[in-house]
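dumping this here before i forget
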Amino acid sequence: MKKILLLLTLIFTITTSAQYTILSAIDINEGMEDQYLQLEEFFGPVHDLAIEKGIQDLQAVFKVVSTSDDGDNVANYFIVTGFSSKEQLDAYNTSWEEGKWLALTKEAYKGKMSSRRITKYLNSVGSESNERRNYHLVGVDASIWAGGDLRPGDKMNILGTIAKTDDFEQYESEVYKPMIEKEILKGNHRYWALSRIYERTENAYGDITHMFFNVGVEGANNTEGWEKMQSTFKGQKLIEGLQAASDHQNGGQLELISIHN
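structure:
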């Protein structure tokens, strides 16, 4: 359960104890989706070994099912890599920069694949994608978790937003989170999380400050809480404050393709 929560904050990384995540948005070159998925399958045993060695805590691949992003180089896939601390995340990045993943990959495929073929796979990383945008996230808050572990085929919604007030995070934690947790207990939702972007690559979207992650229940009616809140003066004022605290940007629905934890 701990590692599943890491993923969701992103999936899997947002909890009050502040786990960390790298979220990679990937725009696949036309006609190269199969090659990309083969590459992710190749890295499966490597991620398993990296988790065993404490290099990372989780790795998941999501396919974009629908999106409101109408910009250039729209992501077709998202990769979520979870860590228990910023130190672990920084060490992970350093290991890539220093070429240590070649040795790790050879260890994972010892007796199963030649060094030449392994090197070929590693050298091909990035050739299947037009662009990769990376975001480093730290968990702000997360709801209780329900519905069992995530499995391939499960859906998750992701939404970028721009914080407009200093108390934005407090509004989300103290106003929205309790409401969504009531819906979770009723079986209308599975999970909600909020993360803050603290670092990003130069090509990443520069305006968004936070990301929401939601795992819903297909066919459930989760609008009851909003409707009930809107029926009172106090509720209306709380919602007005919540909506004024941030400006929602692009979002979409993702489908889990694979997960290693």
